[in-house]
Amino acid sequence: MSDNLARHFLLREDVTFLNHGSFGACPRPVFAAYQGWQLELEQEPVEFLGRRLHDLLRVPRESLAAELGCDANDIVGVPNATNGLNIVAQSLDLKPGDQILTTDHEYSALEKTWAYVCRKTGAEIVVVKVPMPLVSEAAFTQTIIDGMTERTKVLFLSHITSPTALLFPIENAIAEARRRGIWSVIDGAHTPGHIKLDLDAIGADFYAGNCHKWMMTPKGSAFLHTRREMQGLLNPLVISHGWTKDSKAPGAKGSFGNSPYIDEIEIRGTRDPAPWLTVPAAIAFRKENDWWAIAEHCHSLAQDTARRLGELTGLAPLSSPEFCAPQMVAMPIPECDTLVVHTTLFEKYGIEIPVFKWQDTCIARLSVQGYNSRPQMDRLIDALTELLELKQAPLAAQG
């Protein structure tokens, strides 16, 4: 299967690419659509950007909303999930003593975002430790609830965590936050195209996700989803033609006929909109190739590789299978110089995979996409066995 699918991608043949989770990889047909939009823009920039763009931007919103279980008027295009979450974090009315409740598994860029917000507002960050290994939704939810106080104003959680590749069961924690009047802000950078999403059912106040990771659009396309009653709380990071001075008035319209929420965030000066306009092409590519079935195969390959490495290292996994991201797994490895291992894997073995230390655990974070294969997993296991001086089981014993 991998050889057939690999031909759709532009990845270098001399690199075993096992890091789809960081930046994704764009299939050739989607990349061609991307270049087509760029060419169309260059042929008549004034017409494209000045007269057509606000109508063109509606198409990916509608396409993506149908895919993610939400209304197109509640979703807006942004360059990346970090950008979308910054809009939220820097808009919320926080005061000295207010608390932002989060976990010890969050993405470092967003940890810095909330630290910046706290420096400006006097709010405080409260970090709870998720019980590890993660094997129970009830234990996870209770840990989050136990961290809530009368001062908690924001609940900030990843849906799929970046360092530990865990799929957090966030729904009940979000529901409790709603009951207590706490804003729920969800980092869904890794979720679109990775798991099936129903944003309305999840019910988060604010949810940002990347399309350029597992949905496989070109780099620079993501979304921010905001519950309708929360949209008036947000302010754009960039003030441009989409902004109007009466945008907070009841029933106000944006400068281009959409809601102020959409026009203020999407219309932000001259930029290349091609990545966002390619969202429908990416969704079509996935449907044409039955990508959810491919994802099931990738999930099996990822879990099998993690099991094989675990048998060699003797180290326990970070979670039970249901709480592991389907196509991404953080595999504990023995204590080592992670930078050296990461660099050597690439320079000596041609393997691109993140290796880092999270808290006290050394991790190799494996991503498996449709272009990956079992021989590539074998190559990774062999390389780590040699680098980490693991004891390789005989081939007969490996089955």
From TrEMBL:
Q: Which Pfam families match?
A: Aminotran_5
List UniProt keywords, sorted A-Z: Isomerase, Pyridoxal phosphate
Q: Name one GO molecular function term.
A: isopenicillin-N epimerase activity
Q: Does the keyword Nucleotidyltransferase apply?
A: no
> Which PROSITE patterns does the UniProt record give?
PROKAR_LIPOPROTEIN
Residue limits of the Aminotransferase class V domain?
49-353
Query: What Enzyme Commission number does this protein have?
Result: 5.1.1.17
Domain of life assignment: Bacteria
Cross-referenced InterPro entries: Aminotrans_V_dom, PyrdxlP-dep_Trfase, PyrdxlP-dep_Trfase_major, PyrdxlP-dep_Trfase_small
Q: By its UniProt entry, which Gene3D superfamilies does this protein fall under?
A: Aspartate Aminotransferase, domain 1, Type I PLP-dependent aspartate aminotransferase-like (Major domain)
Descriptive protein name? Isopenicillin-N epimerase
